[in-house]
Specification:
Layout: H1 13-22, E1 23-25, E2 31-33, E3 39-45, H2 46-60, H3 65-82, H4 93-108, E4 112-119, E5 122-128, H5 133-148, E6 152-160, E7 163-170, E8 202-206, E9 209-212, E10 215-221, H6 222-232, E11 247-249, H7 255-274, H8 286-294, E12 305-308, E13 315-319, H9 325-340, E14 344-351, E15 354-361
Parallel strand pairs: 11-14
Antiparallel strand pairs: 1-2, 2-3, 3-10, 4-5, 5-7, 6-7, 8-9, 9-10, 12-13, 13-15, 14-15
């Protein structure tokens, strides 16, 4: 009879060492990228992100792929502005620069860049083993701009099998470099810690691809999410807020911003519930361990204080920092509904000590 090792570790030590050297967890539940100016990152399975984005498009009734691609292009340009300069060489400079790009993309789990064809007015690129196709398209164009030190327009097509073809054309317009994307809330900085994160169990699969327990995982910068939100907002100016909204966003004033935050939270709630995760809440302090598993492990933030506000599961949570409040609130609503078995509502506010999130039953419970 064969022996079965239940504790068999299929992770890849050299990859984990590389990820831990670049990405650092802190005690407020975030993950920071040491090679990008300590920018927070989201360590998320590709399937979860794609489900979230699909739900977001469904809730808003908008096609948002182009907005995501443009946000990706701007964010990738910003990322390379924070990195050491690409190699300069009389011989093989392009090849060396693309190798540098691919080393970076591989660590982030975002595929590999290849050059299929070049011409005087542009090039045809291939994002092989790509993650999300719109993100790959924007990243591919931005990386090519850094390699060539020239501006390009781009369009893309998905070839399936994890391949996105990016067609670039020289852009002679004077386009300024992207500015830092600003947050609309306050976060505490936190201190570096040795807390566990998802990438501590990473397994290398192929160039540009790594997995956690069989699920492909990618590292997405907070900067990408912020830029995507800014680019998507104008397309929601004429969209009325749903009368069935679950969250009160205190301090968020723009109507289109409220609509988008509602949608991001609802998409996060639906994605979490669809994943079938088990959540057990025995007492208010249980929210700390629940947040460590379902938020901090991905770099979304963590609960540091939980206070009971009623006898029906209502709780007031303190989260010192968040990758994006709407995503965090949506997942927390999903956690509450999974634990309590009924619909929830939330109230969010940003204070000097972080994010205050109140979760309670959406319906009045009879005494």
């Amino acid at each position: 009879m064969p022996l079965i090792d239940d504790e068999m570790d299929e992770s890849t030590p050299w990859l984990i060492e590389k990820l831990q050297a670049r990405y650092a967890p802190n005690d407020v539940g975030m993950i920071v990228d040491r090679e990008s100016g300590d920018t927070p990152v989201w360590c998320v399975t590709l399937a979860a992100f794609e489900r979230w984005f699909s739900e977001l498009e469904g809730v808003t009734n908008q096609t948002l792929g182009r907005r995501l691609a443009y946000a990706s292009a701007e964010s990738e340009e910003m990322r390379w502005s924070l990195a050491p300069p690409l190699p300069k060489s009389w011989l093989g400079q392009q090849k060396k620069r693309i190798a540098t790009v691919n080393s970076d993309w591989g660590t982030r789990g975002l595929g590999q860049l290849e050059v299929l064809e070049t011409a005087t007015d542009g090039a045809t690129l291939l994002a092989a083993n790509r993650g999300h196709t719109a993100i790959a398209a924007g990243m591919g164009n931005a990386a090519w701009e850094c390699v060539q030190e020239c501006r390009f327009k781009f369009q893309w097509s998905d070839r399936g099998a994890g391949e996105t073809v990016v067609q670039t054309t020289v852009d002679l317009r004077e386009i300024p470099a992207p500015k830092k994307a600003e947050k609309a809330w306050l976060d505490l900085a936190g201190n570096l810690s040795n807390d566990w994160r998802l990438y501590d169990r990473a397994r290398h699969e192929t160039e540009g691809v790594w997995t956690i327990e069989g699920n492909r995982t990618v590292m997405l910068h907070q900067d990408l999410i912020l830029r995507f939100v800014n680019l998507a907002l104008p397309y929601l100016a004429d969209t009325p807020r749903s009368t069935d909204a679950r969250t009160e966003w205190k301090g968020v004033e723009g109507s289109e911003e409220i609509v988008l935050w509602d949608a991001m939270a609802e998409a996060a709630r639906k994605q979490f519930l669809a994943a079938g995760e088990l959540v057990l809440i025995a007492e208010p302090e249980s929210w700390i361990s629940v947040s460590n598993r379902h938020l901090a492990a991905q770099g979304l933030g963590c609960v540091t204080k939980a206070t009971e506000i009623d006898v029906n599961g209502g709780v007031d949570l303190l989260i010192p920092a968040a990758l994006h409040p709407a995503i965090v609130v949506g997942r927390l609503i999903g956690c509450w509904e999974r634990a309590e078995g009924r619909a929830a509502k939330a109230t969010w506010s940003s204070e000097k000590d972080g994010h205050h999130i109140k979760l309670e039953s959406r319906r009045v419970i009879a005494e």
